[in-house]
Amino acid sequence: MSIDAFVPAAHRYDSTDYRRAGRSGVLLPPISLGFWQNFGEDRDPQTLRATVRRAFDLGVTHFDLADNYGPPPGSAETHLGRILAQDLARYRDELIISTKAGYDMWPGPYGSWGSRKHMLASLDQSLGRLGLETVDVFYHHREDPHTPLEETMGALAHAVRSGKALYAGVSNYSPERTREAARILADLGTPLLIHQPSYSMFNRHIEGGLLDAVDELGIGVAVFSPLQQGLLTGRYLRGVPEDSRAGGASVFLSAETVRDPRYLERARGLAEIAAGRGQSLAQMALAWALRNPLVTTALVGASSVHQLEQNVAALEAGPFTDAELAAIETFAVDGTGR
Fold first, then answer.
1. Is-cis flag, bond preceding 293, omega within 30?
2. Given a cut of 80, is residue 3 above it in pLDDT?
3. How buried is 47 (Cβ within 10 angstroms: 0-12 exposed, 13-18 middle, 19+ buried)?
4. For residues 146 and 139, what is the distance between their CA atoms, to the nearest angstrom?
5. Which ranges of the chain does DSSP label H, i.e. alpha helix?
């Protein structure tokens, strides 16, 4: 199947209320397209291309990657690089493209974690796969218990000074390490733009201090896994589809998890509330994650154009009432699905 030359929708920015990342000048769409597990070599390239094009038409200007996204690692960046060259090169200045370094990428002592060697080599490799000279945000992907934080943050600051990244970010950092990272970066003249943690109705750990930290620091928040690996969709309410993550060999979700009576009771309770709002469970889960003004954007890993369109429509139902939020609290239990 071929896709015609891309001409984006003329009114692509008319219906999106962009959100400011902390106290910066960066505005992000409430729903951003993430490429964690839906953009590898096991996916149809034309579906990937159609999904990215449709995202841009819908005002989704933020594409989030990491060096290890795929599978295999690196393939998500390669796929997006090809799509950028084919369809979006002339619109590059309308996009925020982020990537990360810190997880295993190549053999030997420099292929992972947070050393200056790993961080800057990984960024160069990512730029090569993406076919870009600069990414908009370069993140450290996880805390490194062995490398001094000054070294890792120094690498982020160098990436910005060198022009290979415009902004610096961290992901999966504790509140304490986030504060320390921000302090070091400020001393180096490179503000910390954004933090990327996991957050959903079933994973609420950031409410235990991280949201206070980002508020204090004035940095943005891009939450990943707002649908908790599919647990906050309707997919598992009546069993385990063979083609699902839980029905396959996913290391993040098992069939036992989705058969747990506690999960099913909570997910079905939430689905009933969502239906009362005229939403799917997934749409309500996204809207719930975005209810907090400290959350700048929610990353979704859409595997089709239809799924993307449904996710982007998550905010159409309007704000939650106090009664709805109180009802959700009964079922939105931290730790569900672990």
1. no
2. no
3. middle
4. 18
5. 45-57, 75-83, 116-130, 149-161, 175-187, 210-217, 255-259, 261-276, 281-289, 305-312, 322-331
For residue 292, name the pLDDT band (cuts at 50, 70, 90).
very high
Please determine, for residue 225, whether its predicted confidence score (pLDDT) is greater than 50: yes
Q: Write out the DSSP string of 172-213.
A: S--HHHHHHHHHHHHHTT--EEEEE-B-BTTB-GGGGTHHHH
For 31-44, write each residue's pLDDT tens digit. 999 999 889 999 99
pLDDT surpasses 90 at 296: yes
Tokens read off for 161:
């000074």
The answer to whether the CB of 226 falls within 8 A of the CB of 34 is no
Look up tokens 């729903």; give the residue: 31
Q: Can you read off the two tokens belonging to residue 160?
A: 């910005």
The rounded distance, in Å, linking the Cα atoms of 55 and 224 is 17
Total residues belonging to the chain: 338
Give the residue among 249, 182, 239 at the shortest CA–CA distance from 22.
182
Closest CA to 115 of 161, 173, 154: 154
Q: If you average pLDDT over residues 222-237, what whole number do you get?
A: 94
Instruction: Kindly report whether the peptide bond that precedes residue 319 is cis, defined as omega within 30 degrees of 0.
Output: no
Q: Are strands 31-34 and 96-101 parallel, antiparallel or unpaired?
A: unpaired
The tens digit of pLDDT for each residue in 140-168 reads: 999 999 999 999 999 999 999 999 999 99
DSSP-derived secondary structure for 36-68: SSSSSTTS-HHHHHHHHHHHHHTT--EEE--TT
**Residue 306 neighbours by CB distance under 10 Å:** 11
CA separation for the pair 320, 304 (Å, rounded)? 28
- Work out the pLDDT band at 5, boundaries 50, 70, 90: confident
| Residue 11 φ/ψ, nearest 5 degrees | -110, 35
Q: Which residues contact 118 (CB under 8 A, 6 or more apart)?
A: 101, 102, 105, 110, 111, 112
Which residues lie below 8 Å from residue 335, measured CB to CB, with a gap of 6+? 202, 203
Rounded CA separation 65/299 (Å): 10
